[in-house]
């Protein structure tokens, strides 16, 4: 199954291998680089939020100190140290200070009993503020009060507040005379709107786009700016911020998407004896931060992907370049396969291994070609030898055949050949050709010759008689030895009378040819013409044999037949 997925060609395998390698190298690299950049980006963002929160905290702290110092310095002026508390000069002095800073809502001077003796716009003039914290603590030293809703001034400033609850932050300073005795308390109420102005100053111009939020939180972890914040909003405490949950983000409530990258900075207390313990908290939604992270990861993914593709392309080109010489060698091998000869494994091979392969193939091809030539020559020689042997065998076969059909002693056709020829003549006769005659011949008293002169002399006699018989007949006739001292003469196209003439001539020639050391010998013969009623070739031979018997019986050295029943003697 897996092997089916592996590409077959060298080129594809190289490309697949490099593709796999680029994936193996590229993927971890991408994951590592992407993680490193992610961490770096989150770290940078948090640092940025920290810096933002710190700078906001610093500006707020400086502002608070400024407000505190204004009251403090005014309380130390000659007017406040020496002038009677019902002096008409106080109000213009207070109005000047209020005018110098738009967020002052009210500035007033009380006597030591807490009765307002001078105030901006004469608000609360003559009223008692003896129970107010700023008066009670302001008698003993510089005081900065926590944010609170306007109580006594609420009605007076209604118009200014446009229906919204008015919240103030109080600054107070004791007023002493030249001898250092307490004369009263000088206090200012700054409208809480100033917090918005201060934060606005430090907010970056693209805060909206970055979805950045800034908060001022009091010691109870309640948001005091912006106002009207829903109560379920849970600002992470400094303790929680020290421990990062879920990576870098902190939950701001129960909703699942309520996760923020959060930074916090404590606002330096303007008056250490009356600490406010406020802090500025800056946050950015997880989604916004991660969008940037994802955008960055996407850029890295693209860069890694493109590098991988380039690597793959290079691998493909490289594999192409490497496989080309192999394909060239394959083409040469195919030419050999299709029978081309004297092929050279040449080519421009840069790689040492390919040069060696080409030399090895050339060597192998040369060896095989030489072996093929040698084999062809061997085959050729073998074929010639086989042909020679076959001819010799054929010759021997002919010779053997001839020997099998020839009598070895006399050289005449033997009984087998004689009867084959007889069969042919009988068939010819049956087809309507001319008749033939058969002579059966037998040497007279041959036993005596053997007995008297020995078997070897008997053989010589047989050879001489055979010689005479051969010389006495025509070429078309056949004389064969068919028994010990028995011969048969087959005379084609010969009727009985002509056959008797031939027989007589033979008889006389034998009788007139003495053989050393035996002297004269004679032969007896029976002659018979083939008959139309004959059933087989043997019929004429049997009748000739009978006439031979008659010739012997009649005294030998004679020819007997149906025309000469008594036979004739020489
Ligand atoms: N030397 C020799 N003798 C042979 C050969 N074949 C047969 N004979 C002899 O021929 C003789 C034939 O003898 P018979 O059949 O008695 O006839 P015959 O002596 O010729 O007497 P008639 O035929 O009656 O005149 C035998 O003694 C055979 O051994 C042969 O190849 N060589």
UniProtKB/TrEMBL annotation:
Enzyme Commission no: 2.7.7.65
Domain HAMP: 320-373
Gene Ontology MF term list: diguanylate cyclase activity
Pfam families xrefs: GGDEF (PF00990)
Catalytic function, reaction form: 2 GTP = 3',3'-c-di-GMP + 2 diphosphate
Span of domain GGDEF: 434-564
Keyword set includes tRNA processing: no
InterPro entries: Diguanylate_Cyclase, GGDEF_dom, HAMP_dom, Nucleotide_cyclase, Rev_trsase/Diguanyl_cyclase, Sensor-like_sf
Keyword list, A-Z: Membrane, Nucleotidyltransferase, Transferase, Transmembrane, Transmembrane helix
Membrane-spanning parts: 299-319
SMART domains: GGDEF (SM00267)
Regions annotated as coiled coil: none
Domain of life per record: Bacteria
Protein name per UniProt: diguanylate cyclase
Organism: Giesbergeria sinuosa
Lineage summary: Bacteria, Pseudomonadati, Pseudomonadota, Betaproteobacteria, Burkholderiales
């Amino acid at each position: 199954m897996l092997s089916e997925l592996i590409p077959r060609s060298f080129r594809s395998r190289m490309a697949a291998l490099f593709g796999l390698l680029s994936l193996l190298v590229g993927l971890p690299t991408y994951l590592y680089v992407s993680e490193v950049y992610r961490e770096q980006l989150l770290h940078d963002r948090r640092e940025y939020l920290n810096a933002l929160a710190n700078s906001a905290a610093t500006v707020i702290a400086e502002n608070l100190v400024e407000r505190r110092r204004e009251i403090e310095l005014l309380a130390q002026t000659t007017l406040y140290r020496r002038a009677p508390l019902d002096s008409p000069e106080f109000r213009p002095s207070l109005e000047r200070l209020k005018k110098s800073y738009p967020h002052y809502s009210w500035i007033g001077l009380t006597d030591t009993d807490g009765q307002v003796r001078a105030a901006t716009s004469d608000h609360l003039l003559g009223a008692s503020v003896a129970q107010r914290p700023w008066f009670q603590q302001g008698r003993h030293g510089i005081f900065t009060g926590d944010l609170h809703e306007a109580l006594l001034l609420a009605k007076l400033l209604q118009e200014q507040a446009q229906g919204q609850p008015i919240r103030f932050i109080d600054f107070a300073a004791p007023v002493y005379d030249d001898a250092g005795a307490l004369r009263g308390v000088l206090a200012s109420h700054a409208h809480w709107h100033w917090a918005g102005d201060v934060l606005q100053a430090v907010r970056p111009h693209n805060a909206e786009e970055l979805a950045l939020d800034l908060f001022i939180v009091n010691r109870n972890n309640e948001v005091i700016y912006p106002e009207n914040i829903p109560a379920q909003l849970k600002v992470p405490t400094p303790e929680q911020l020290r421990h990062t949950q879920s990576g870098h983000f902190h939950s701001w409530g129960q909703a699942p998407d309520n996760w923020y990258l959060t930074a916090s900075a404590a606002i330096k207390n303007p008056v250490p004896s009356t600490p406010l313990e406020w802090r500025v908290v800056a946050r950015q939604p997880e989604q916004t931060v991660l969008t940037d992270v994802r955008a960055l990861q996407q850029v890295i993914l693209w860069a890694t992907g493109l590098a991988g593709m380039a690597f793959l392309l290079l691998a493909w080109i490289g594999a192409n370049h490497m496989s080309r010489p192999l394909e060239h060698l394959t083409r040469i091998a195919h030419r050999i396969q299709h029978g081309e000869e004297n092929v050279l494994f040449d080519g421009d091979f840069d790689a040492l291994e390919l040069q060696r392969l080409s030399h090895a193939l050339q060597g192998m091809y040369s060896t095989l070609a030489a072996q093929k030539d040698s084999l062809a020559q061997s085959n050729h020689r073998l074929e010639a030898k086989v042909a020679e042997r076959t001819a010799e065998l054929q010759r021997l076969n002919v010779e053997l055949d001839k020997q099998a059909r020839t009598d070895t002693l006399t050289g005449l056709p033997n009984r087998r050949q004689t009867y084959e020829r007889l069969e042919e003549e009988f068939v010819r006769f049956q087809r309507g050709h001319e008749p033939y005659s058969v002579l059966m011949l037998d040497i007279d008293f041959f036993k005596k010759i053997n007995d008297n002169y020995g078997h070897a002399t008997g053989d010589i006699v047989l050879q001489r008689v055979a010689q005479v018989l051969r010389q006495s007949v025509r070429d078309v006739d056949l004389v064969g030895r068919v028994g010990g001292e028995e011969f048969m003469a087959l005379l084609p196209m010969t009727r009985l009378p002509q056959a008797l003439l031939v027989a007589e001539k033979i008889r006389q020639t034998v009788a007139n040819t003495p053989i050393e050391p035996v002297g004269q010998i004679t032969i007896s013969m029976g002659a018979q013409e083939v008959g139309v009623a004959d059933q087989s070739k043997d019929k004429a031979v049997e009748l000739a044999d009978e006439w031979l018997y008659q010739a012997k019986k009649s005294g030998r050295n004679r020819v007997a037949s149906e025309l000469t029943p008594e036979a004739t003697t020489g």
